[in-house]
Write a structure and sequence with these properties.
This protein has 223 residues and is of the alpha/beta class. It has six helices and five strands, in the order βαβαβαβαβαα. It has one domain: Flavodoxin domain (Rossmann fold, 3-Layer(aba) Sandwich). It has a five-stranded parallel sheet with strand order 2-1-3-4-5, with helices on both faces. The protein binds flavin mononucleotide. Flavin mononucleotide binds next to loops.
């Protein structure tokens, strides 16, 4: 059985942005945790001899690379055939997004707080689909000046509406010192300020990240 694919989702889409830095931090901490049964991602499935059904692979999924305009389908996603909604979308970008999301077994949404909620880019990407999200485990990591807890609360409500299985461990990372990349290309990642990382470690980030990861493992194990 191939490892379960877990998307670590970069949710803001502006340029420059901090989100890729935070996403990679989450990815690195989870991937390095020896308690979380991980298996490296491979593009060639036949080479993958990992047969442990509890194993996960983490992969970064960037909403900025999905080419989604503001929602422009003429259907309501929840009304499409649950078993195979993909061909029923009118727009090619929706069919592509549907295929991407169907390929993942679980999601960790790493989102900033914008005006006490989630960025429109994330809500838009979620609204495009329904059955592709439904029933899958989801976890939330927010960040912002005070951790972005209000964004996490809103996101939890939206994910519940999509009938996702939202795990109880929610991480809120206060970003007080790390700034944006200055004058760089879009893909440039600003390094995290050590004072932010130290603050997160003192607050027990690694143990909370482990709980989050293990909750996903448990949810995926039930399937
Ligand atoms: C439109 C907008 C609204 C914001 N609202 C909040 C907020 O409500 N609370 C907060 O702590 N930070 C807020 N911020 C600051 C963001 O947390 C910070 O800019 C962060 O870098 C955003 O992530 P990004 O760079 O990936 O877009 C806001 C930023 C933007 C651009």
């Amino acid at each position: 059985m191939p490892p379960k694919r877990v998307a670590v989702v970069t949710c803001s889409t502006r340029s420059p942005r901090l989100n890729p830095t935070i996403t990679h931090y989450v990815y690195d901490v989870l991937s390095a945790d020896p308690m979380i049964p991980t298996s490296p991602a491979t593009s060639q499935e036949e080479d993958n001899i990992d047969t442990d059904p509890r194993h996960l692979t983490f992969e970064i999924l960037d909403l900025a690379q999905q080419g989604l305009p503001l929602y422009d389908e003429n259907i309501i996603p929840a009304g499409l055939p649950a078993a195979d909604p993909t061909p029923h979308y009118e727009k090619a970008h929706t069919r592509a997004w549907s295929t991407v999301v169907r390929g993942f077994d679980a999601f960790i949404f790493v989102t900033p707080q914008y005006n006490w909620s989630i960025p429109a880019s994330l809500k838009n990407a979620l609204d495009y689909l329904f059955h592709e999200w439904k029933g899958k485990p989801a976890a939330i990591v927010s960040y912002g000046g005070h951790g972005g807890g209000k964004a996490a609360d809103h996101l939890k409500g939206v994910l519940n509406g999509l009938r996702m299985k939202v795990v109880s461990t929610v991480l809120a990372l206060p970003v007080k010192y790390t700034g944006l990349p200055i004058g760089g290309a879009e893909e440039e990642r600003v390094p995290l300020d050590e004072r932010d990382v130290t603050g997160w470690k003192e607050a027990g980030i690694e143990a909370m990240m482990r709980n989050l990861g293990m909750e996903l493992v448990c949810e995926l194990d039930k399937e």
